[in-house]
Write a structure and sequence with these properties.
Elements (H helix, E strand, L loop, with lengths): L7 E3 L5 E3 L8 H10 L2 H5 L18 H26 L7 H14 L8 H15 L10 H8 L3 H12 L12 H7 L6 H7 L10 H10 L3 E2 L2 E2 L3 H24 L5 H12 L5 H4 L6 H26 L19 H18 L3 H29 L5 H10 L10 H13 L3 H11 L5
Antiparallel strand pairs: 1-2, 3-4
Helix pairs in contact: 1-4, 3-4, 3-11, 3-14, 4-8, 4-11, 5-16, 8-10, 11-14, 11-15, 12-14, 12-15, 16-17, 16-18, 16-19
């Protein structure tokens, strides 16, 4: 079995060295703590999960979603960790350390999402597409341009934890390589993603870091890389949570009726107990929904661990799309697919959501227009009062004259991506002259 666990971190000196925590925390619990106390993680509380700027405090935001995914990931990691311990009783790392690695990766998986979630990603991509071939982009190489044309929150998440947060450009959060590897779902760069319509997990600016991570675990195969096995657990945790809990939010917002939810969730629950109480009049609709979610998540999580073990996923695989695609119980895989389909049909086309996403085009478009414009003016030394004020607005996050144009534009995106939905909306209003 290839080594799957490493305590090495990036240091001040630019070296990857084994972590010596020197206290009661394991290196992987230290990872968890660094993520949960970070500024980007805290700001997820005001970022869209599905419903932008929701006025209902009961629905999920990116923070509550990430915490729930981390909880499921911990269970999956513990199950796989116990299996690893059975295979190698003399192994140094305990099942709880495997659980902490997956939990930490889950906690950070959405930390790079822009304001307005996936809509924000699409708006950034379309803005750069509209400006391709203009003087703004003349100095950007094709590979660099692909980073902007395919902008993805997954790649931004890796950038935040490895470069931006805590120790800027000296290791970032300095998480262990195991946690970083478990975050990487798509082990290729943007130019490869653009050619085949896939997502990707690292920008050109983090390419060398990603290669170091892959090489640490022997994941290089000829000219390509394989996924770290723990990344499948992180991905499955995310899929389980968003497929089911988005429907729960839809019931809360009266977009989906409880009966429609039961139709999908009961097969996912199998022969689990408590059926007899679902419709005996003792439970409110909210209690029914919560119980169905809990039972379904528990059953799906257990089957995910069984599937991981049955397919020997500890050995890195080529060509495996995701763990859920390998499920042997068709009622579970099909049930998740039905839940996602209902979400797309009833949630993603809900009128208020569409209105706010269309408004987000103007919000993010204004920010990009003014701030990318200022970065370009700085680059070509055409400063103006407006440019100076825009750069001052960005403060320590502003691009620097010594940076190349690609790095300047990345600095602007780092600044915008770090905004909450509310702040982006307010700032864009100010820049458009609509503020008070």
């Amino acid at each position: 079995m290839r080594p799957l666990i490493s305590t090495r971190r990036y240091t001040y000196e630019g070296e990857y060295v084994s972590n010596q925590s020197g206290n009661h925390r394991t290196p992987f619990l230290t990872d968890y703590d660094r993520i949960i106390f970070s500024n980007p993680f805290r700001r997820l509380s005001k970022k869209t999960q599905v419903h932008p700027l929701s006025k209902n405090d009961h629905v999920h935001n990116r923070l509550t979603h990430s915490l729930e995914v981390a909880s499921v990931g911990r269970s999956l990691g513990l199950g796989v960790g116990e299996h690893m311990k059975m295979l190698e009783p003399e192994a140094l790392h305990s099942p709880y350390e495997v659980a902490a690695i997956v939990q930490s990766a889950c906690l950070a998986h959405d930390i790079g999402n822009p304001p307005f979630g996936h809509a924000g990603e699409e708006i950034i991509k379309e803005w750069f597409e509209a400006h391709a071939g203009t003087p703004l982009m003349e100095e950007i190489s094709p590979r660099e341009m692909a980073d902007f044309l395919c902008f993805d929150g997954n790649a931004q998440s890796l950038r935040i934890v490895t470069q931006l947060e805590n120790h800027a450009y000296k290791g970032g959060m300095r998480l262990t390589l195991s946690t970083q590897a478990a975050m990487i779902k798509y082990p290729w760069e943007a130019c490869d993603a653009r050619s085949n319509g896939k997502k990707f997990s690292y920008f050109q600016s983090e390419k060398a870091i990603a290669q170091t991570i892959f090489e640490e675990f022997g994941l290089k195969k000829e000219q390509t890389y394989l996924r770290h096995p723990f990344s499948y657990l992180m991905e499955a945790s995310d899929d389980i949570c968003y497929a089911l809990l988005d429907i729960k939010d839809a019931v809360e917002l009266s977009m989906v009726e409880v009966g429609q939810m039961e139709e999908i969730f009961l097969p996912l629950c199998g022969d689990a107990p408590y059926y007899e109480t679902l419709n005996d009049g003792t439970l409110s609709d909210f209690q029914k929904v919560s119980r169905l979610c809990a039972i379904a998540i528990g059953r799906l999580s257990g089957h995910a661990v069984e599937t991981f073990i049955a397919h020997d996923m500890l050995c890195p695989k080529e060509g495996v799309k995701d763990l859920i695609s390998l499920f042997s119980d068709p009622s579970l895989g099909e049930g998740l697919a039905r839940a996602k389909a209902l979400g797309h049909e009833r949630i993603f086309n809900e009128p208020r959501k569409i209105e706010l996403e269309l408004g987000a085009y103007r919000t993010i478009g204004i920010l990009l227009e003014d701030l990318i414009g200022a970065a370009y003016a700085l680059h070509v030394n055409q400063k103006s009062f407006k440019t100076e004020r825009a750069l001052t607005l960005m403060g320590n996050d502003a691009p620097r004259a010594s940076q190349g144009l690609y790095e300047k534009y990345q600095a602007v995106l780092d600044y915008i991506v770090g905004m909450t939905d509310n702040y982006a909306t307010r700032l864009a209003g100010q820049l458009a002259g609509l503020g008070r």
